[in-house]
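Closing statement on the flavin-adenine dinucleotide sub-project.
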Amino acid sequence: MQKEDLDVFVVGAGVIGLSTAIRALEAGFSVTIFAEIFPGDEKSIKYASCWAGADHISVAATGAFMHELEQETFAVFKGLLKEDPDVPVMVRPHQRYVQDDQPDNWMNTDHLRNFYPDFSTLDASELPQIAVRGAAFSTLCIDVPRYLPYLMNRFLASGGRAFRTTLPSLSALLSNTDRPTFEVFPPNSSRSPPTLRPTAVINCTGLGALSIGDVLDTRVYPTRGEVLIIRAPWVQRDSGFRWTDGHISYMIPRQTGDVILGGTYQPDDWHPKSRPETVKLIKEHGIQAFPELLHPSKRETLNIEDLDVIEECVGLRPTRKGGVRLEIESLAVGERTIPIVHNYGHGGAGYQSSWGSATRAVQLLKSVLKTDSVY
Ligand SMILES: Cc1cc2nc3c(=O)[nH]c(=O)nc-3n(C[C@H](O)[C@H](O)[C@H](O)COP(=O)(O)OP(=O)(O)OC[C@H]3O[C@@H](n4cnc5c(N)ncnc54)[C@H](O)[C@@H]3O)c2cc1C
């Protein structure tokens, strides 16, 4: 049997599902994505990927395994940029500052120095008045509203198939008798209904892993992120600021001239709408840390009313105690047992670890199917 005869189902069309599906296609499998939400849909609290900034900033505390995934992903993004200048990813200067000198994970200079080749610490003369320490390096900013359709189109153009469905469980994908409803995606494509005889399933359901039957991973929880989208086409750098009270302000530019201004990290907070008091806090901290968010003519007065706010956003980062789950399990339905590869729980680092995770998931798939030796 050839690898292209092996039907692999990927559940989830966020940045993790799409990247994984592309890697599986590239490895020679026949791949179908099943998901409730796709790129281009109205933004949803059930779809973390549409709310992200997103930049690539590795954090020391996430551990060696995550760092490997992030390093691989950094290299893949750099390669993509070389191959295709239109890919919606930008190299941007990043500066980060802290308001006090307490040692912390966010400004772990040893870790950042190892990670980002042009890392340097900033002199006192280069710091804003309200900061005591700072560092600079180049990083990547991913233009999320363009990058998700880019991944989707790349998947479809390479022969992938996709169906919209809401699955009560992964085993619902294995039974032709009790079929959920499937809608072809994109809706105008001429595809026949899927045959539910997968060789393996890759589970990229993010926060869905908490509630989807036969996964029910209680280690999964949301880390709520409230951010604002600001119109400020003159902002070209990526930056972060840690305040003494622990609040982190950050801004991430997009190619369109919009800038993400964050934000919050609130574990186990499911509230899906913005809170007026948080919006005010993000604005107040934001203009003090980054006065350039304001139009040049408005920077003297630092008035939050002068920020050109386009949207108030809330997203739930799919976080997992113990970190990302890249693991094989098997699923028995009737007389059939098929392998499941899990790839979820990336928290606030799904973009920056996406390609590394996708490659690992496909390696697990190949190892369990023994495709390199048997087929
Ligand atoms: C405010 C904010 C800022 C962020 N900033 C960054 C950043 O700067 N850098 C970075 O790397 N990351 C960042 N992240 C994190 C990043 O967005 C996530 O880690 C990433 O999007 C997770 O992707 P995912 O594909 O696992 O999940 P999701 O994007 O949530 O996708 C899950 C998919 O599974 C599908 N699904 C789930 N359950 C079911 C079901 N039962 N049936 C069918 N389909 C189902 C959904 O429909 C969806 O398609 C940020 C996140 C937020 C919220």
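The domain at 92-142+221-319 is CATH 3.30.9.10 (D-Amino Acid Oxidase; Chain A, domain 2). With this model delivered, the sub-project is considered complete and its resources will be redirected to Aim 3.
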